[in-house]
Each structure stands twice: as structure tokens, then as C-alpha cells.
Amino acid sequence: MRPIRKTILITAVALGAAVVVYIGVTLPSASRTLAPVQPTTVFGAFHVHTNRSDGSGSPDDVARAAAAANLQFVVLSDHGDATRTPDPPFYRHGVLMIDAVEISTTSGHVVALGLTTASPFPLGGEARDTIEDVHRMGGWAVIAHPDSPKPGLRWRGDTTGADGLEWLNADSEWRDESPTSLARTIGHYLIRPSEAIAGLFDRPTASLERWDTLARERPVVALAGVDAHARVGVDGSGDFRNATTILARPSYLDMFGTVLQGIELSQPLTQHAADDAGVILSALRSGRTYSVVRAIAWPGRVSFTASHDAMTWAMGESVSTDQPVTLQATAPEPDDAIVVLLRGGEEVASGQGSAVYIHNGAPASYRAEVRLPGRTLPWVVTNAIRVGSSVPPPRTAIPALGTTVVVKALDDPTLWAIERHEPSTGELTASNGEVGLAFSLAPGRASGQYAAMAYPLSGQDRFDAVTMTLRAEPPMRVSIQWRVPRGVDGDRWQRSVYVDATPRTVTLDLQDFAAVGEGLATTPSLDLVRSLSLVVDTWHTRPGSAGRAWISGVSLVTSAPSTVR
User: Fold this and answer.
1) Is 405 exposed, middle or buried (0-12, 13-18, 19+ CB in 10 A)?
2) What are the backbone angles phi and psi of residue 322, rounded to the nearest 5°?
3) Tens-binned pLDDT, residue by residue, of the chain (565 aa)
4) Which end of the chain, C or N, has fewer beta carbons within 10 A?
5) Are 365 and 212 in contact (CB under 8 A)?
6) Does domain 301-393 have CATH number 3.40.190.10?
7) Number of neighbouring beta carbons within 10 Å of residue 484
8) pTM of the predicted protein model
9) Do the beta carbons of residue 200 and residue 377 sit within 8 Å?
């Protein structure tokens, strides 16, 4: 037996040595250390989770790790529905902490920044509605991990209204790696944690192309999301609140060594949290910021400007002129840095340490990348400068037709009927041409609670849209739905509308309704539609909530001549 044991031992030692050698040979290069920056250059982490949602550490833990990583700010983005009042900006361990929220929508996740108050109702549902609500509350919205390999995290809808997107998300890059690659990375992580994580980053071509396409039409800021959780957890319920943390890794400190946002300020931060947060959020919102892959080299600086005559514009700005404009990007170090200028995603100029291009043509969006030899992932990515273009008017949240003709007025208050989920309650009232719905959703966990009022339709009318006047107390989102009878609940197409105490007249285009569920046509067949409903449900109303909504002046309309009935 001894020879066998000896053989096994020798084999095990040899295999172990081979693994060590393999890990050493394939170990990512250590991050290159560059010259210190001035106090007016600050760096921070965008998109960080704490134990208020699916992270393992408290905000204090995050701040302590950020201080150890020499960061100046962190943007927290715990999962939520914006009904929690955001924490005011605060300094902790010398780091400015800014509270944001990551909201789940039917199209993907949106990070809402700049909110200062709680929403009176849960934000979520369709992305266009969530973004509209964020804007109405004074915030701005960034699409998170738009091209994640995980289908449930990938962006699946229209980007209309979004103010920005993540061109890189550190928590998404590992999801398309092979088991062998992940196993190798674990070995690397034990030696160079941040570099090992960043070693999984590929050039996010799809997200960059998405951004370049959007930037041709309007200003869109691009940020790199750390998406740090410091957590490996087990979650069998699908609810992050029930997950069990089995390992607080990769740590916040490790993630803060991967990718960050840099901002060039006109003066150093004042250490007054509210004022400094305003400066940071303004820079992020306007695109006066660039991303740096810290695991490649650190710290990183880049200058990107446009100039014409004696005027100069910085990244994030728009240049409205038909005259030639000089675009220049410069990276002071390292010496082997290659600076690339891109127009609409296409390379137009490059050079070692600097690149220059003269714009003299159609409107375009320009950005810069700084690349280092042997890397497919850009080390630095700037935000864009738009030249010779004007910002198109934003699409209205409630699209309206031009001249409309009433096809049929739904003006008989006696035809409205209550529909509800037991034991939720609903009661109808009619007065002065308005029909009111007084509702109370059953308390407990969300389990399909709703209250609705429905008006019957014959399927004989031809229309393009529906117009109505709405008001409600308290402020809420109500769902306007077309229903085709089938099964228990029927097939439904819905469009939600924000309403408050001020009467609001809206015209909802039939084409702008979205199917509820999978496998349905984009729009309902008018021959089969049997009711129009106003619905209050848990998409935008908490279980246990009560309120009132009123509707009046409801008409089916068309943009083509028709007979009024």
C-alpha cells in the first residue's frame, strides 16, 4: 500500500504545483500606478448595494471600504420602488455618500438619481411610466446593465426618456464566462482580487453600440456600474430579502478596485454634503464624467474638448455651429496610451497620448477612448460631445393624436360596473358627469389585489384612441385597460396614467397600449374588445391602500372622419 500512497501523494503534489504554476502564468497584470491627481479630480463608485436590499454591508461598511480605496464619493442604488425617502447626502469616513434607488420595470432595471422625496405610490411597471415618474419627481434615470447575459436583467424595451445607461456593468461581465474561466479567476482572485474580476471584462460592444446609436439623436450619459453587492447568496424564493449570505465576496474594497467614474471639478469638494452632492450629480447627469478601469491603471486622467475660434466645450456639452470644430482628446499618461476619437462609434482619429479630428460636416456625436497595449477593453471611456446638432423635442409621456373625431361617447354612468379581487372593495358613485371609484385593496403581500370599474363595448366601433378626464386622491397611477374575454381574467392591454387631485385630460393612442402577459398581439383586435376598464392594482398601489379615482368625458375617437353615435 505504501507505494500506492506515495504515488498518490506525488501525483497530488504535482497537480497542486501545476495548478500554482498555471495560476501564476495566467495571473492578470497588476494595475499600473500613475502619478497622483490634483484635489479637483475626484473618483467614485456608481451603483452599489447595501444590506437595505441585496448587499451584505451597511452604508457605513461601504463608506469604510470606499475610504480605504481612496474614493471621494459613492452612489448607493439599493433595490426599491422609490416609496422610501432617500437619505440626504452625508459624509462618512471622509467619503460623500449619495442615495439613489434601482427600480425594476417590465423592460429591465432603472437607477433613479436625484430624488429627494418619497413617491406617494410604488414606481415600477412599464419603463416609460417609471421614467416619467422619476422625471416628475425631479430625478433622472439610468438604464442598468442593458445587455446583461442574464435575460431577466437585460433591457427589453424602448429607451425613450432614459437619461443615461451603463456602458459597462461589473456584475454582468462574469455571467457569460465558462466554468473553466470562472475557476481560474477564483485562483487569480486570491492573489489580485480586483485585477482578477476585471480580467473577466470584455469590450461591451452591444452596450457601446446602443449608446452610440442613442447619442446620435439626443444627449445620453454613459456610466460604468460597479454593481457591488459583496455577497454570494442562496435565494430560493426569488426575493432578495429572503436570500442567505454565505460569503461576503467579492468585497466592496475589491469591487472598488475594478472600475470607477472620474470627474474634473472647477474647485475641490467643500465637505458640505448637500452642496458637494449637487456638484457630483450635476456632473454625472450632464456627462461631465469619464469611466476608468482602475484594475488596468490608476489614477486615470483624460481631457476631451471641442473648440472653435476662442470657444471651448467639454465632454457632455453640445456645440451648435455649422463651422469647423476641432475635437481633441489627451491622456497625459501612461506613455504607451493610445487615444482614439470616435464619431457615432466609428474611429476617426487616433494617436499616442493625443488625438485630433476636425469636424466639418453633418451633425455628429463624438467620444474618446484611451486604450493600453494588449487590452481589448478600453482603459478610459469619456462621455460625448455633440457637434452641429440640436436636441429633438422629447416624446410626450401621453401621446396625443392631432385632430380627433368622436366615434362613440361612453357617457352612460349606469353602465360602469365594479370588478375586484376578494376581499378588496370597490364602490361606484356618479355626480356632475363624473363616475368615481372608491377602493380599498386588501392588505398583506401582493397577491393580485385590484379594484376596477369597467364599461362594456360591443366590438363594432372603429377607433384609434380613447380620450378621458381623470383625477384621483391621493396621487396614484391608474391602469386603463382594454379587455378581450378569454379564460379567467381575459386578455388585456394596458396603459398607466399618473393622476392627482387636478383633473387631467388625456388621449391614449391604441398603439401605445402594451399587452399584459406573453403571446398576445401588439394591439387588441377591436372586434373582440368587450370592455374598457380603469384599474387600481398592486403594480402602482400598495396592498392595504385606499383612495378614490374619478373619470369623465370618456370617448372613443379617431383621427379619420367618422360618425358620432
Assistant:
1) middle
2) -95, 0
3) 567 776 666 656 665 565 566 566 678 889 999 999 999 999 999 999 999 999 999 999 999 999 999 999 999 999 999 999 999 999 999 999 999 999 999 999 999 999 999 999 999 999 999 999 999 999 999 999 999 999 999 999 999 899 999 999 999 988 988 898 888 989 988 999 999 999 999 999 999 999 999 999 999 999 999 999 998 765 544 444 455 667 888 999 999 999 999 999 999 999 999 999 999 999 999 999 999 999 999 999 999 999 998 899 999 999 999 899 999 999 999 999 999 999 999 999 999 999 999 999 899 999 999 999 999 999 999 999 999 855 444 444 444 445 779 999 999 999 999 999 999 999 999 999 999 999 999 999 999 999 999 999 999 999 999 999 999 999 999 999 999 998 777 899 999 999 999 999 999 999 999 999 888 999 999 999 999 999 999 999 999 999 999 999 999 999 854 333 3
4) N
5) yes
6) no
7) 19
8) 0.90
9) no
Grid coordinates representing 4 are 500506492
- Domain borders along the chain are 301-393, 405-558
Cell of 84: 422610501
The gap between the terminal CA atoms of the chain, to the nearest Å, is: 99
179-189 vs 2-26: helix crossing angle, rounded to 10: 80
For 16, the 3-state DSSP assignment is: helix
Contact between 542 and 469 under an 8 Å Cβ cutoff? The reply is no
Only one residue has cell 365594479, namely 418
* Helix, strand, coil fractions of the chain, as percent rounded to 5: 20, 35, 45
- 405-558 is classed CATH 3.30.565.40: no
β-bridge mates for residue 244, sequence order: 234
